[in-house]
Design goal:
elongated
């Protein structure tokens, strides 16, 4: 059986997951990792911005717990491919300050939300027993083969699917 890896590119409340071997793409899917039943779950730091600090902490914790359940459930569905490892694309940003300082800066709120969902996905991989690596998106190598493989699969084959495929291949090469 071919070695299989997941490549994951995250957004606010959702992610693209690609399952790949060294020579082909087995699956690609969009997973939802924000619970629509929780107001503000797609952008928890934005939702917490104007709240008293204790309420902000509670909301972010509730969103994190819910998102972890959703992400773990979605990644478990990918395990039929005998996944050996995963790679999650990360930004190149610097570490965030504490929550109080983050909530005082709108720019940091945007950064925190990106990190929030990426870290949820790392935790979900770990809960599924999938070794996970973090890859800075800017460090991904270019590979024209990714466009060709996508044509054979048909749409959608956007930048998200291409970058997630490159991450999966990087995980296989590691």
């Amino acid at each position: 059986m071919d070695h299989t890896a997941l490549g994951i590119r995250s957004h606010s409340g959702w992610a693209i997951v690609v399952a790949a071997t060294a020579s082909r793409i087995l699956d690609r899917r969009r997973i939802e990792i924000a619970d629509p039943a929780i107001p503000g779950s797609r952008q928890p730091f934005h939702a917490a911005e104007g709240l008293p600090f204790d309420q902000a902490e509670t909301l972010i914790r509730k969103c994190r717990e819910s998102s972890l359940v959703l992400a773990t459930r979605a990644l478990t569905a990918c395990l039929d491919y005998n996944v050996e490892r995963a790679a999650i694309l990360f930004a190149s940003g610097r570490p965030l300050p504490d929550l109080a300082a983050t909530l005082r800066s709108h720019a940091l709120i945007h950064t925190a939300e990106g990190e929030f969902f990426r870290e949820v996905l790392v935790s979900a991989c770990e809960q599924c027993g999938i070794p996970v690596m973090r890859i800075k998106e800017r460090d991904l190598p270019d590979n024209p083969l990714v466009t060709e493989l996508g044509r054979s699969l048909g749409p959608p084959w956007r930048q998200d699917e291409k970058r997630a495929s490159l991450a999966a291949w990087a995980a296989l090469a590691a």
